[in-house]
Amino acid sequence: MQVSSNIGVVLDGARLLYSDREIAPPDFVDFHIALTRPFGLRRWWRPQVNFRLDGHAPFKPLPLAQALPMFEWGLNWCITSHCLDYLIIHAAVVEKNGQALVMPAPPGSGKSTLCAALVCNGWRLLSDELALLKLDGSGGVVPLARPVCLKNESVSLISSRFPDARFGPLCNDTIKGDVAHMLAPADSVYRVGEAATVQAVIFPRYIKGAETQLWLRSRAYTLLELAKQSFNFHVLGEQAYQVLRGVVDQSQCYDFHYSDLEQALQLFDDLVEEREPALGEGDSHYAL
Amino acid sequence: MPYKSCLLLEVLKSPSLCGQLRLPEWDLLIRQARIATMMGRLHVLLEQHNLLEKVPGEPLKHLRWGKIMADRHKASVVRELISLRDSLAELDEPVVVLKGAAYSVAGLQAGVGRLFSDIDILVPKTVLDGAEELLQMDGWYTTHLDAYDQRYYRQWMHELPPMRHGKRGTELDVHHNILPETAVVTPNARRLFEGRVPLPEVEGLWRLGNEDLVLHSASHLFFDGEFTSALRDLDDINSLLSELYLPTGHWFDLISRAGQLGLQYPLYLALHYCREFFGLAVPDGVMSRARSELPFGDTRLRLGLWIMRRGLMPDHESCALRGSGVARWMLYVRSHYLKMPLRLLVPHLLHKALAPKFEHIFKPEDSSPRTVDEFLTQLGRQKRT
Question: Which of B24, B34, B61 sits opposite A27 (nearest CB)?
Answer without folding.
Answer: B24
